[in-house]
């Protein structure tokens, strides 16, 4: 069966109908980047697509799902084999041309759901530039994990926690357990004492913000202890994320 | 089960192993563009991914499959709703940064398999620029349908034949029949008499080459008569394409 | 008297000495954009420069202050006369070339202190791109008001509060009272009820993030009630900001 | 005497008249690149200009000849002294701005005649981008030698044959014999056995397409045996090319 | 007190009034670059701002002063610590976006006053490009010292004279004596005999023009003998410059 | 016969010899732009090529002549049919890539001789950027008419004089009389009284510099009275230009 909300699985006439219905375009975005010894390079897109599918199910007929953007802004992971990065300029151009193409057909509201935090800044920059160049477009974007603060806190994650750690691994155990090598999961940096001086400064202060390469933050690319993640935790996190994005979309007026 | 040849489903350590094995990176590329009343916007990527999966099966362990590039260069279809186009500059940047990222990890040979002919010129341009900027990279690219000349001829296609016509529809009936609305297939422009003067000039001469928008060539975006396509024809075409690409890869030396 | 920590007021030989001492370069960044009926277009830079001067005084000899970047990314204010905006591409290029020029002379640590939140995303993007192109550079950036959460909360600001509101006006009353026309201060949008549907959605959800033009958010460009600000509040906010940035710089190791 | 069809030799008023007549603009494009020991760096432009002059003579008053573009996309020849290459981005910009400038004066049809195959891909890319940015422009382009398949086959060229080989040398002997050093002509790579493994793969398969530098394909930069070329062969090839381009132009309607 | 002609010190409503009055926007531009052992890196902006302030005082109410551009095109000084350079592309983008932003609010006439000759060429290039992209804008630019030929000649400068020499030092002694370390002023290259062969060629011929790095022209970055400068000379030079710019502005009609 | 100093007429081996001899590369640059009712669009390149040929004859074996750049920066003439303009960005890219290509083969000294003053600023900008990106390159450029001040003054030109006026027409009467329609020469703007207010301001002040479109300066695109030009005047001007450029090249040391 086709998924009737996926743009790639619509004909052009179905697309025209979707415009006429005033749908919002959801765009999953990921990264191809290291996720430690036990998770796969495509982890971020798997999570974004999983969330978008659930949101789309909640809002059947009111959204369409555009093709995923599978590679993103990942310079901080380039020391780890398999990682691909786009410059921020190129990632921005992809998003801008994707969205403005669809705007020519009549869509006005777009939500990029990114499984990768490295894309956030560029998504904001694109939205800013569009305010002047295409005032008829409303471009929103959403992260994943940070929408589920309570569920993540319930995991009681490690003092240093983040990329490929408890919360991210939990989501994967829920969404795509076949892509988690549970036997290979290894803890990464879990305490501030393990960080070198520069990394500790960067982690200590959310702001001022200091961007560092991940090989400096963690020898195996992991922040936190993914062995502590469970699928149940992941289900709770995903549920919270989906609820937040769904609520946003339900509020967002067409005008 | 994971597909062990998909880069997105490898860990970073598996990626390092794949580099060490001297694998070639295969990259499916598509388009999101109109394919007439009966086929879906994502048709080109579906076909590229289908071919790549078969090639990869033939060459297990000797290739890896990178993330697909789902949108391409489709300005000629922009009159039809749902089409997305990147400028040639942006599409080139995506391919270049994708490939050079992986080259930093040690890969040297790349084959982009594009289901969309509108990407061909830009792929050549990227390969040219890399000769100077990254002489250690060998970037090849391949189309689909034109590799299967005999099998297409056996279809006895319409005098005007091409986009969304007999050969392309046949491939989809073989690769993804659930994405073909056979009840909605309609013939497009099938004879030179139906073309306007400019379109006839463009079709009459392969060279000089004149690029025209598809709404000028065909009212419904189709060239040929997709109703005449069969899954058997498609199987023959796909088989020929896969054989040609496999043969190329088997010959391509690592040095 | 010259200010010995300002790069523009050093000779080239003094600059060489500052490199040899391992100084951090502080770069104030602002915007030229509307700040409502009572505050001036240059407000953001005035605040950034005020903070930087105080931080530099705390760390005499350990930092140098580079020339200010007086215009930034302000597309959301372009409906209001006098606003200047750079595209994110151009703002990024300025920061990148500024920083890489100084890196050629030996500096490795840079902190951009931006009085304008519209610059934040681009600063992050620049820092990301530098990880690959110039791994020897550490580029940090800092906002202002969000470093002083407690002091701002103590103001008991309006339910809708932000640009040109209580907290920003307070800072100006402390740092540059001659640039605040207290007799012309007017409340802007102060409650969610005053927002239109789209604006309410955007303000309701910090994430997903929806960037809107300010003329949609507020008729006079103000969020909050600047009449409620006092210089004392501003002093507390500035003190908190300066303390946070100073602490960051004291921790930041040279290596 | 002036050549009345050359734009560079018209006054602005004559140019205005040429627009009013509905002329097509012909643009010769070349390369500055090695052509082996016996032919000159400017060979490609000499051939393009020779063909264009003959086409223009056939269509007097219906075409104008714009200034030649003397350098093109030649990264594959950069190992040989004297070669100049533009990036594909820059070559594209030159063609685009050249054509759009003339479009502002009212011209709508343009034919770039390129003596250098390395320009082909970029010319297609420019034509694609113009479909969206300048839908009023029709940009066609033409190669040379590939228009004369029968005449080239009649030469019975070497098994490996191409750049600076029999067919190209023949054209030069006809068009500009003073620029061929017949005493210095040397055979280059003429058989597949002389190719290394990678080059053989690339030549064996027209598609997939693998672009290689010429110093890998041939020690002296030549493919084929130019000593076998005659001016008579060249006359036949040029005649065929001119006929094909003339026929195209005669068909191309103004609308 | 605020300076009522400084855009940064106006509210958005005052800016709207300034547009309505038909004011010209003056933009001081500088450089951050070496000025020898005795003058500061910011010398060029200090001089530009000093001149602009005097011009604005002459034309009160008829001009507004935009934010200064503090860094410019200084590649020729990059061998000297502290110098920052923008590429010409980036400097051009800053000027273009600055000016076109203000043009959206209604301003049409702009004068960039540059204290740094390295910016001249790019300012001309921006003005050229704007003729096509924004025909409603008139962008003028002015240097400083070359407007005061007689006053400079009266100084009887050294045979080789220029950057950081008599005339520039004199201006600084008049405008900002606290930024001149008179005890550290040292002569630089003062005679043609001290130049190497290439530098002598470049200085001998104003045209053809050969741009050289300053470390080749002078060991300490100075051309001329700054010790011979006096504040009185500087006053005469500044007076002449201000008079010339004022006269230009008085003539420049609004239409 | 071939012209042995033209790069386009050399083989790659001859090019290698020319590098080894330490030759300077001369590059003629022009424009395709209106030159009034009596002179042709390509006038500027004709003059540049004429001068370069004479300089090359003076310095046989010490220079090579690269392909001409036939279109340049001519936005100010776009109101007149037939004019082509490149953006300054594109013209810069062409020059930069042309020169850096040849630098890879070993050339280090380049002189662009431009018959069109609109190219001057961009040529300077390219030379500036190369100081940082390619410090091994020395890029000089030269105008034409301004090198012959005495010879032009001897013409006693009109009070308003310049583009397509006495001095330029005289050069063409000497260099390419067949391209001057003497029967169609018409005076353009010859006195300040004929200028509108803005044009008068721009012409009155060489500095500040205000760039205006030519249709504002002159109804027929001419400044001065070309009917007063003679071939003898042109010979004197060309002789002076050639002497100045030759002298520069004779002085320019290889190191």
TrEMBL record, chains A, B, C, D, E, F:
One of its GO terms (biological process) is riboflavin biosynthetic process. The keyword Hydrolase applies. The keyword Transmembrane helix does not apply. It holds the Pfam family Creatininase. One of its GO terms (molecular function) is metal ion binding. Its cofactor is Zn(2+). Gene3D superfamilies: Creatininase. InterPro entries: Creatininase-like_sf, Creatininase/forma_Hydrolase. Keywords: Hydrolase, Metal-binding, Zinc. SUPFAM superfamilies: Creatininase. Belongs to the creatininase superfamily. PANTHER family: 2-AMINO-5-FORMYLAMINO-6-RIBOSYLAMINOPYRIMIDIN-4(3H)-ONE 5'-MONOPHOSPHATE DEFORMYLASE, 3-DEHYDRO-SCYLLO-INOSOSE HYDROLASE. This is Creatinine amidohydrolase.
């Amino acid at each position: 069966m086709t998924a009737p909300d996926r743009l790639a699985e619509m004909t052009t006439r179905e697309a025209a109908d979707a415009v006429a219905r005033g749908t919002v375009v959801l765009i999953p975005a990921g990264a191809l980047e290291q996720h430690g010894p036990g998770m796969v390079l495509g982890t971020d897109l798997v999570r974004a697509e999983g969330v978008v599918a659930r949101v789309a199910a909640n809002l059947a007929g009111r959204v369409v799902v555009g093709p995923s953007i599978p590679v993103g802004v990942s310079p901080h992971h380039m020391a780890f084999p398999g990682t691909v990065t786009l410059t921020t300029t190129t990632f921005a151009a992809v998003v801008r041309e994707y969205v403005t193409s669809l705007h020519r057909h009549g869509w006005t509201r777009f939500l990029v759901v990114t499984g990768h935090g490295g894309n956030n800044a560029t998504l904001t920059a694109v939205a800013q530039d569009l305010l002047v160049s295409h005032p008829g477009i409303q471009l929103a974007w959403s992260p994943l994990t940070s929408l589920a603060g309570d569920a993540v806190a319930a995991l009681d994650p490690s003092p240093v926690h983040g990329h490929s750690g408890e919360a991210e691994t939990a989501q994967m155990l829920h969404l795509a357990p076949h892509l988690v090598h549970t036997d290979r999961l290894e803890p990464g940096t879990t305490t501030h004492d393990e960080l070198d001086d520069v990394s500790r400064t960067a982690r200590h202060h959310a702001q001022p913000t200091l961007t560092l390469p991940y090989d400096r933050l963690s020898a195996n690319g992991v922040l936190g202890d993914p062995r502590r993640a469970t699928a149940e935790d992941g289900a709770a996190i995903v549920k919270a994320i989906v609820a937040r994005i769904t609520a946003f979309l339900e509020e967002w007026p067409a005008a």
